[in-house]
From TrEMBL:
CDD domains: NAT_SF. One of its GO terms (molecular function) is acyltransferase activity, transferring groups other than amino-acyl groups. PROSITE patterns: GNAT. Pfam families: Acetyltransf_1. Transmembrane segments: none annotated. It comes from Alishewanella agri BL06. This is N-acetyltransferase GCN5. Residues 1-168 form the N-acetyltransferase domain.
Length: 183
């Protein structure tokens, strides 16, 4: 397995994996292109993928500090660092055939190294609490993530734009665990 920086030519494959894991309408290559820009700062890219024989088996999208916007699901008053030092862990997916092998953790650790070089001292994530076996929260907790807040119906607004949640269908009622990881 090889871990490398995400490139423009990878976006269609990453979008396909995101759809498989997160549901139809989660993201498209055009949106991924802007996410890739948000993850790049000071010559470092914190957006990574894992591939086996040139097949994408996992990806990690992380935004550089100062290159993402807070929203109503950000509990800024609870953060241990100021916004200008806070990175954002936007998305991760591991192909179902490759889950449980530590790939997500490897991508996270490699992303943290890039984020540190970009000036981050912590990273925020909104994790899917209803993921199978609560794997998203377990994965982030294992890395040292700390729960800040629970946000009910976190992705419901995306349903109006055609998002089909793999758990709920046309109207997503899933909640997010807002978690922070200091590094």
């Amino acid at each position: 397995m090889r871990i490398r920086t995400l490139q423009q030519h990878d976006l269609a494959g990453v979008a396909e994996l995101a759809t498989l894991v997160h549901g139809t309408g989660y993201t498209e290559p055009q949106q991924l292109a802007s996410w890739l820009v948000q993850g790049t700062k000071a010559g470092q890219c914190a957006c990574l993928l894992a591939e086996v024989e040139k097949q994408i088996v996992a990806y990690r999208i992380s935004f550089a500090p100062g290159q993402w916007q807070t929203d109503l699901w950000c509990s800024v008053a609870l953060w241990p660092v100021p916004l200008e030092k806070m990175a954002y862990f936007k998305s991760v997916a591991v192909h179902p055939d490759w889950q449980g092998q530590g790939i997500g953790q490897r991508l996270l650790q490699n992303s943290i190294q890039a984020l540190k070089q970009q000036g981050a001292t912590a990273g925020l994530a909104h994790l899917w609490r209803e993921s199978p076996n609560n794997s998203a929260v377990r994965y982030f907790s294992k890395a040292g993530g700390r729960l800040l807040q629970i946000h009910p119906n976190r992705w419901q607004h995306l349903s109006a734009d055609g998002y089909l949640c793999p758990r709920c269908g046309a109207v997503c009622c899933c909640s997010a665990a807002e978690m922070v990881l200091e590094f």
